[in-house]
Known about the structure:
This protein has about 325 residues and is an alpha/beta fold. The chain has eight helices and 13 strands. It has helices spanning about 1-5, 50-75, 125-145, 165-170, 185-195, 230-240, 250-260, 300-325; strands spanning about 10-15, 20-30, 80-85, 90-95, 100-105, 110-115, 155-160, 175-180, 200-205, 220-225, 245-250, 265-270, 280-290. The strands form three sheets. It has a seven-stranded mixed β-sheet with strand order 9-8-7-10-11-13-12, with helices on both faces. β10, α6 (about 230-240) and β11 form a beta-alpha-beta unit. The longest helix has 28 residues, at about 300-325. The protein is elongated. Residues about 295-300 have low confidence and may be disordered.
Amino acid sequence: GWGRVVGGGLRAVQLQSTLSGELLVCLVYFDERLKTVKRGARLPGEQDDAAASDFWTEAARMLRSRLLEALEAVGLPEAKVDVVGRWKRRRLAVERAFVTERFELSDGRVLTYVQPEGQFSNPNAACEVQCLEWLSSQARAICLEQESGGAAPRLLELHCGGGCNTVALAPFFAELVAVEINRTLAEAAEENLEANGISNVRLVRCPCAEARVLSNGAAAVLVDPPRAGLDDETLDIVSNFDDILYISCNPDALCRDLLMLADHQAVSLAIFDMFPYTTHAECAVRIRRRQCAGSHMPSACAVQAAAAAAAALVVGALLVGRRQAR
């Protein structure tokens, strides 16, 4: 039956859900033979590719029907479910290989995002809305402080991913230059910008370390790096900005980078508990070049700048301790 087809060689099941009522089920398979086969090539003795794909797709469609029936039985008749099968160098989808998320912000905006299967998207959507609210408030503050003659400033965004922050912040700036190296995420960002009617963003595919020329004329920078934090070249680019927005999923890396930005001081700090019941904490900090920049007190500046990350580490430890005590 269909269960044997979708279950044969199955190694893992990954689920991605949205606040908009969509669910993507990714079935991850393992086939030793695919290790030596080029992408899209046929295995020795394998039946016709189209027939094999249709066989799996029909079985996965039956699985989707069962899931839709179960969701309707618990009061979710409007839910949308898609099923994807992923092998090494191969992927099949019953219909779509993505979900569409919608975030409602307190200023009345409804933001729409395409989130491709297998690419990064924040797993805690409700908490992500709060992060976008904080970023929007900081963007408003930066614009009010830097506007001259009524002209809105420009923003440089590094590690823009699928454009989650890009879409939310673009309306506050005259122009936003977004940098992303991953092709799939860059394509998703383009689609998200179009879906939200954003026309003042220039998306550039390149390593962030090569974005120095793109920083010309930008008044502020937003960085949302991977857990490793900023590399030396990117950190050098960021250090030239007076206003820096830094989103971090690793407080240790954030603390290290802030210590290197000794001429800046923390203006605002937010901690988002994206991963409850774990030691991980998502930190957001806005720093601004301080008055003592270039003075004889670099150590004092560094300590003050790193205090935000240190606070995040302390709060994270307190959260974990509180949960363990329950």
